[in-house]
Write a structure and sequence with these properties.
The structure is a single chain. This protein has 4 domains: about 190 residues, 3-Layer(bba) Sandwich (FAD/NAD(P)-binding domain), CATH 3.50.50.60; about 120 residues, FAD/NAD(P)-binding domain; about 110 residues, PurM-like, N-terminal domain (60s Ribosomal Protein L30, Chain: A, 2-Layer Sandwich); about 180 residues, PurM-like C-terminal domain (Phosphoribosyl-aminoimidazole Synthetase, Chain A, domain 2). The protein has 21 helices and 36 strands. The strands form 9 sheets. A 6-stranded mixed beta sheet has the order 25-26-27-30-28-29. Strands 32-34-31-35-33-36 form a 6-stranded mixed beta sheet, sandwiched between helices. A 5-stranded parallel beta sheet has the order 5-2-1-9-20, covered by helices on one side. A hairpin with a 3-residue loop joins strand 14 and strand 15. The protein is globular.
């Protein structure tokens, strides 16, 4: 017999995607703790590596080289990813608050959110300055500024090592583009006091060689959009002002009830806070037992101890103590491919030091790039005939909702006897049923999805939007829903937590759509499955697949590509930003789009059969053909790149056989990509199409005209 899947009994929540947590996730993927469910909360799908930031600013590294992809890393560690910034940790209730979602419950939590360089007390900085930390926002802002045009004036506030690295890198990058007009480093006191005299000499020389002006003992009065006013009356021109003056904790940590030191979480040798169930590491923590300056090297060295102690806290074993090193090698980038190294008073500088630093940084990042891809389980030596073919060459794809193909469904439904009820109107090809009760027309539909993301809130939103798609496609107004849930094996407490998250998220989507949840059913199984049976009211004749007319324009309200992106994510092939973008689009309701398209002649939602499959459904029901402009079809970010690499959803071959006559090139395979919670596909009067698309886009729907309805009998051609 197969080994039983063990139930999950404890929640570990990692707050922040800092260096220590990234390393913990890597170790967790190699040595998981049975029974523990891991969740990582981070504002975005990637976590920039601070050691390579100066090299990125200077132009030596791309943004991709700078970022640790937390989505891929979490997939490797079998961890859930919650994309959002934590705003509060309630240690009494053991809840982490994240905007726009139910709180995330924990048994053991760890905080690794880093620090901020925001300067709220400096007039004008919040409006016109860019804090160097958090790194993600800074990197995005700098990338946009660096790639601009015209003479550039830049300034860095803070005369520490971090400030010097930044201004040298900025000056180098802008000079290489012929844009550098002025670069200034400003400090209210003396600069570079944290390093030795020889290192200070090298750093000052580098500033001179790069043409950077150093202003010391120069307090700032105000930051303006194009300049900085000093308290002594001088002005410093700056189109891009950043701050690297000291380390500031995030304000929300102070409300946690934990013991703090100047806003930083006080930790012991075991990396535990004053609450033994809450750990902290990296720059957001204060090592009261052996205070040290803020430096990324400590977070990296703390990670093995943190990993072991988190496992110990969850399993009831003893803790390990962390002992920080007395000194560490400081490697300081000097703008060009040159660096300064200092340790124990010994100082070396030059290109060789940069190559050494680059090797160290690349070795660190390689830990997160070289993750084994997910493959199929091995077959037993003796097995039934046909098992290998049925298993296929890839895991069952959550990106297509693990659906059955159109051919199999048609074959199964065709021989069923017709109904004899007068209150049910047959709708050939439509997924929903049309009921008439007391003269009121009601649409009834049901749909469920196998989880394609481990975040139950996002998965619930996607499943709800997916189920409501049939109502919106018929022009109906959602009315009521019942939830149909299969939970994986969980302890009673984790069952309650999961159900609370799922039902809160479901209620939010249904209420926004105008519907109410009227009940449901929950059972246990091997993996999370979320579905809804929904009803809607049709105050006017419903929009069906039949009704498209030659000359109609075809409008699609969402990009396609979710199937290939989620299939790639399962295999560890998709970039985290692509996955985050696809999930966001799948969560987007189509209620507004449905109202705008009320005058459509025919409409459907694009789901498991792919764009061509659902377009064929309209053509067959309407007795028409269609010309599809493949180049006009909007694609999700990353979908074309993945398709060009040959990545396909497990349902793609079945969908492709629906139109074998079509000759495809490159990313055109995406026309058969199964979608989850896809957009609406509508046939509308050609004279109304442009205005409808403009109205859809004005509300945030990335709609496009993708083809026309033509005369014929149920065919699709590429135009």
């Amino acid at each position: 017999m197969d080994a039983p899947r063990l139930p999950l009994t404890k929640d570990l929540v990692l707050i922040g995607g800092g260096h220590a947590h990234a390393l913990v996730l890597k170790k967790w993927g190699m040595l998981r703790l049975p029974g523990a469910r891991v969740t990582v909360i981070n504002p975005g799908p990637a976590a920039p590596y601070s050691g390579m930031l100066p090299g990125f600013v200077a132009g030596h590294y791309t943004r991709d080289e700078l970022d640790i992809d937390l989505v891929k890393l979490a997939r490797f560690a079998d961890a859930r990813v919650v994309l959002g910034a934590a705003t509060h940790i309630d240690t009494a209730a053991k809840l982490v608050h994240v905007p726009d979602r139910p709180p995330v419950a924990y048994d053991v939590a760890s905080v690794d959110v880093g620090i901020t360089s925001a300067m709220p007390d400096l007039p004008g900085f919040a409006a016109h300055g860019v804090p160097a930390k958090p790194l993600g926002k800074f990197a995005q802002s700098w990338d946009a500024f660096r790639n601009g045009d015209g003479p550039a004036h830049v300034a860095v506030i803070g005369g520490g090592v971090a400030g010097a690295e930044l201004v040298l890198a900025m000056a180098h990058a802008l000079r290489a583009r012929g844009r550098l007009a002025q670069a200034t480093l400003i400090d209210s006191a003396r600069a570079f006091t944290a390093i030795g005299s020889r290192a200070r000499m090298h750093l000052r020389r580098a500033l001179t060689e790069q043409g950077v002006t150093l202003l010391e003992e120069a307090p700032i009065a105000e930051v303006l959009p194009d300049r900085i006013l000093l308290q002594d009356g001088r002005e410093v021109l700056s189109d891009f002002t950043t701050g690297a003056a000291g380390a500031r904790p995030y304000g929300w940590l102070a409300d946690s009830g934990l013991e703090m030191q100047d806003g930083f979480i006080t930790i012991s040798e075991t990396l535990q806070s004053s609450d033994p169930d809450v750990f902290a590491t990296g720059d957001c923590a204060h090592m009261a037992f052996d205070p040290r300056p803020k430096a990324g090297v400590y977070a990296v060295r703390q990670s093995p101890v943190l990993f072991e102690n988190l496992r110990a806290a969850l399993s009831g074993h003893g803790m390990r103590h962390y002992t920080p090193q007395k000194d560490y090698l400081k490697l300081i980038s000097l703008g060009a491919k040159s660096a300064l190294g200092e340790r124990f008073g010994t100082t070396l500088a030059g290109p060789a030091m940069w190559r050494w630093k680059d090797r160290i940084d690349q070795k660190f990042m390689a830990k997160f790039r070289d993750l084994p891809a997910m493959g199929q389980p091995g077959l037993p030596e003796v097995h039934a005939l046909g098992l290998r073919e049925a298993l296929g060459d890839k895991p069952m794809c959550g990106g297509c909702g693990a659906k059955v193909g159109r051919t199999a469904l048609t074959a199964a439904l065709k021989p069923l006897p017709g109904g004899n009820r007068d209150d049910i109107t047959p709708l050939p090809g439509d997924d929903a049923a049309l009921l008439t009760t007391g003269g009121v027309q009601q649409v009834l539909s049901t749909d469920h999805l196998r989880a394609l993301t481990d975040d139950p809130v996002v998965m619930t939103r996607i499943a709800a939007v997916h189920a409501l798609g049939d109502i919106w496609a018929m022009g109906g107004a959602p009315q009521a829903a019942t939830a149909n849930l299969i939970l994986p094996k969980l302890s009673p407490e984790l069952q309650a937590r999961s159900l609370r998250e799922i039902m809160t998220a479901a209620s939010g989507v249904m209420h926004e759509a105008g519907a109410e949840i009227a009940g449901g059913h929950t059972s246990l199984g091997d993996e999370l499955t979320i579905g809804f049976t929904v009803t809607g009211l049709c105050p006017r004749p419903p929009i069906t697949l039949a009704g498209a007319k030659p000359g109609d324009a075809l409008i699609l309200t969402k990009p396609i590509g979710s199937g290939v992106i989620m299939a790639a994510e399962m295999a560890g092939e998709a970039e985290g930003a692509w996955v985050a973008g696809a999930l966001q689009l799948m969560c987007r309701p189509q209620s507004r789009a449905s109202r705008i398209l009320q005058g459509a002649h025919a409409m459907t939602d694009v789901t498991g059969f792919g764009l061509v499959g659902h377009l064929l459904g309209i053509c067959e029901a309407s007795g028409v053909s269609a010309g599809l402009n493949a180049s006009a079809v909007p694609l999700m970010a990353g979908a074309a790149q993945l398709a060009s690499r040959g990545i396909r959803s497990s349902l793609f071959p079945e969908n492709r056989m629906l139109a074998p006559w079509l000759k495809l090139e490159g990313a055109q395979d995406l026309l058969f990509d199964p979608q989850t919670a896809g957009g609406l596909l509508a046939a509308v009067s050609a004279e109304d199409a442009e205005a409808l698309v403009a109205e859809l886009r004005a509300g945030g729907d990335p709609a496009a005209i993708i083809g026309t309805i033509t005369k014929g009998a149920g065919g699709v051609v590429l135009t």
